[in-house]
Structures are given as C-alpha cells and as structure tokens.
Write a structure and sequence with these properties.
single chain; 481 residues; alpha/beta; 6-stranded parallel sheet; 3-stranded mixed sheet; 14 strands; 14% strand; globular
Length: 481
C-alpha cells in the first residue's frame, strides 16, 4: 500500500500560503515540519506549494503521495536515545517549473500567498548575466523569483498588502540581502518600473536566516524495517535529529504571523543573525574541525566515539567550553547550553559520522572555523589556548599522511598536499626540524591570511605539541597538555 490521501484517513487540505523552492530532504525535515506544527498547534491553516527549480528532482514522487511523507526524528533527547515518527501533511502539490511554467506563474495570482522559502544550495543565490525575463523559465533561482514577484505585482496592481515575506535558507552569509540585491539588479537590467522596485523594498520583507539541523537524508538501508513498521510504502521518508534551530532576522509583523516560538519550536526572531552564525561556525563546525585530527590519530573513527572517549572526550570538552565559548559575545548561559546540545548531537547513536568524511579541506576549515577562536582567546586572555594549539599541531601531524602503518587518504587542494609532503620530507625527527615544519606551515599566508609565526607564543606552543605527538604518540601527547 502506497502512502497517499486515499490510504491516509487523516489527510487535510489547507489554503496555499507558502511558495517553496526546493523539495529536498532538509526543507521537508525542517521548514515543512514547522509549518505542519503551526497547522496543528496555532491554526496557521496553510499549505506549501513546492517548486522543483531544476530539471531533475523528486516532485513526481512527492505528487504521487499527494505531498505526504513520513518524518523520523532520531537522537538524544533529554539525555536518552529516542526515535519518533509522524506523517507530515502540509505540502499541497509540487510544480516542475521547467514543464509547468504557466502553472508556476499562476501561483503568484493567489491572494493567500504570503511566504517564499528557498534552499537552492549555496550556489543557488547567484547572478546570471544571461537570464532574460522572457525565458520560460529563466535559468537562475533569483531570476525565476524576480519574474514571479513581478507577475504578482502586476496581478494585484502594486497592492502593498500582497507583498511577500521572503525567507531563504541557503547556507550563505546574509542570504536574504544577497537574494534581494540580485533581484534588484535584474529588475534594473530588465527595465522593470520604479514602482515595482519600490514594492520590493516596502511591501516585501527580506529575512536573513541561519538554519541548523542534521538531516542524513533518505534512510535507504533502513527502508525494509521502516516499511514493516509503517505498514505502507513511502518513497519520501526523511530522517533528522531532534535538535533544530532557525534564527530569523524579521520584523514584528512576521513574528506575529508565524508564531513558531509560542508552540515550542526553537525559532529565534532577532535583529542580527551574525552572532548566532558565529556561534554555530565556532562551536558546531569549529569543534568538528578541532577534534578530527586528534581523535583520528588517537585511533578513533567516528565523532560519537570521540566525544564518548574518556581521554579524547575530555579534550574536546575542554577545547569547547574553556577555549572556544569564552571568545564569543553571546550570554555565557546561552553559549554553555548550545555547546552542551552540540555534545549531545555528536553523541547521537543513530548517526554514524565518520571523522574522515569531515576531514576534507581541513586547512581552510581550520582557518575559518578555529583560527578566529585562537586569535580572540589570545586577545582576551593574553595566553595561548593550549587545546586549540594542540589541535593545530595534530592537523600538521595528520597531514604527514600516516596513522601508524596506515596511510591516511588525505583530501585537500593538490597544491597544498604537495607542499605538505615536501615540508614533511625535510623533517628528520629532530626537534629543530619539527620546528621548521611548524614555522613553514604557520607561515603560509595564502591559507591563514597572515603569518601566524608573528602571533606571540603560538609557534613555540604548536612546536612543543608536535614534538610530543611525534616522539610519544597521540595517546601520550594528549595527556601532556
């Protein structure tokens, strides 16, 4: 039996209020679930029209199931492993814009339409100089949205009450600001009238956002078990962790229309998303980058093992709570809570997160995710954060390319890998040669945007840790911090 409105007696229809670009796992596990919660708990009384903005996608399968799908949420909740599932009944239909362009534009004529959601990947919000308003459809996502907004403006003769709340979820900084900038650029290029541009600026709102939820995707390996549990076939099952966070820069009008916090969802309406983005990058992403070389060289293969290990876990917590959190400007209680939640997320028994899978481009990641914490800690405390310095030394050791007798499958820029190989080839194991390795690597201004040897005490600290790692091995060196 297939999941659809015939096999799901509780199926409901709602007025279409949300235009969503993207039908992938993340939006269905995150935004669509939240709108489903609003329908259940806050009488939102709205549904989502999903737009497949590229030629290939999953809209056909979604339509076969009348927009219905099963969401599994799995992970630690209040310290205990918990797996729950529910049917999400909030998507009214899916539209393939390359085959149903007229139907796509027709959704702009719906007076109930109020919100635009998107997740078109980091490269989706980009200007395409070849886009034309006469194309059916234009190529880029911003151009598709620009044409849709112009059609809505024309349909309602510039009525300010028919403006849209535009809430992109792409993982780029200032996502809404960038989207708006491109649409204004296209409007000027295409000769759209000044009154339309004014409508975009005054009748529409543009909310920068930060989204955070781990969504592993379609659980292919578990589908026989899931199908037996559900008693029906669902080709659109999606899995995610319990944790969720949506930070939205929004006017009061949007907060009143979408009262996510009042129904218990972890949605923050803020004036500036920047400190929350910094918190996520420094703590969630930064801790990942910090732990990978240390844990892997210790002999550990997954994030969960690392966090739960009596020695490596202690190292990770010290780096997080004692050295990273003090460099951030949000309230300490809030930072401590977020960091504790991150530790629980890393311990999720339902997700096998391999360290090697997140070791890609470790040098550029260290520069953007960890180095700011190192420099800010030194600025505020006047001393070197030893756990982060140890992680830097461990990253240098990691790029030697060996874990015992095992060759590490390094994955980084080929030029950088060749440079690391040459640097390590000059080392003979002596303290002096290891200091040369550290000095050469910390002096890579192209990677660090500065010469790290000029940071007082850093070269010596990293050198000392690298000598200990090389002489005594990771298991002994980590105890010597």
């Amino acid at each position: 039996m297939q999941l659809n409105k015939s096999s799901y007696p509780a199926y409901k229809t709602f007025p279409e209020k949300v235009l969503q670009f993207g039908e992938g796992n993340f939006l269905r596990c995150f935004v669509d679930w939240m709108f489903n919660e609003l329908n259940k708990k806050a009488n939102f009384n709205g549904s989502v029209v999903v737009v497949q903005a590229i030629p290939q996608g999953m809209v056909d399968m979604l339509n076969e199931q009348d927009g219905l799908y099963t969401l599994y949420m799995r992970g630690l909740k209040n310290g205990k492993a918990e797996s729950t599932h529910e049917t999400i009944n909030v998507i009214s239909r899916g539209i393939k814009v390359y085959e149903q362009y007229a139907e796509y534009l027709k959704t702009a004529e719906n007076p109930d339409m109020r919100y635009v959601i998107s997740n078109t990947t980091e490269s989706g919000i980009a200007y395409d100089d070849t886009d034309l308003p006469t194309a059916t459809p234009p190529n880029s996502f911003p151009a598709k949205l620009a044409v849709w907004l112009k059609h809505r403006y024309d349909t309602f003769k510039g009525d300010a009450s028919k403006g849209m709340h535009i809430i992109p979820c792409e993982l780029i900084e200032k996502n809404a600001d960038n989207l708006k900038r491109i649409i204004l650029q296209l409007s000027e290029k295409w000769g759209y009238e000044a009154a339309f541009v004014n409508w975009l600026n005054t009748a529409c709102t543009w909310s920068n956002t930060l989204v955070d939820r781990i969504v592993p995707g379609y659980p292919r390996e578990r589908m026989p078990e899931i199908t037996a549990e559900l008693g029906y076939t669902d080709n659109q099952v999606v899995e995610g962790e319990h944790f969720h966070l949506w930070v939205i820069e929004a006017p009061e009008s949007l907060q009143k229309e979408l009262p996510f916090p009042s129904i218990g969802l972890n949605v923050l309406y803020v004036k500036d998303v920047t400190p929350y983005r910094t918190r996520k990058v420094r703590i969630l992403n930064g801790v990942h980058t910090t732990l990978v070389p240390v844990a892997y060289l210790y002999g550990i293969d997954t994030v969960r093992e690392a966090v739960e290990h009596p020695v490596v876990g202690k190292f990770i917590k010290a780096a997080t709570f004692d050295e990273i959190c003090p460099t951030l400007d949000l309230p300490d209680e809030e930072l401590q809570q977020f960091a504790a939640e991150v530790m629980d997320r890393f311990r999720n028994p339902y997700i096998k997160h391999l360290l090697m899978s997140i070791s890609l481009n470790s040098w550029s990641k260290f520069e953007t995710r960890v180095l700011p914490s190192v420099l800010e800690y030194i600025k505020r405390k006047g001393t070197i954060p030893q756990h982060l310095a140890f992680s830097l030394a461990s990253t240098i050791a990691f790029y030697k390319g060996k874990r015992g007798e095992e060759t590490i499958a390094l994955n980084d820029d080929p030029t950088l890998l060749a440079l690391m190989k040459d640097t390590w080839a000059k080392a003979d194991g002596s303290d002096a040669s290891l200091k040369t390795v550290v000095t050469d690597i910390l002096g890579l201004e192209k990677n660090w945007k500065m010469d790290l040897n000029k940071v007082a005490g850093l070269t010596d600290a990293v050198t000392r840790h690298l000598i200990n790692i090389e002489k005594f091995g990771m298991q002994k060196a980590i105890e010597m911090i």
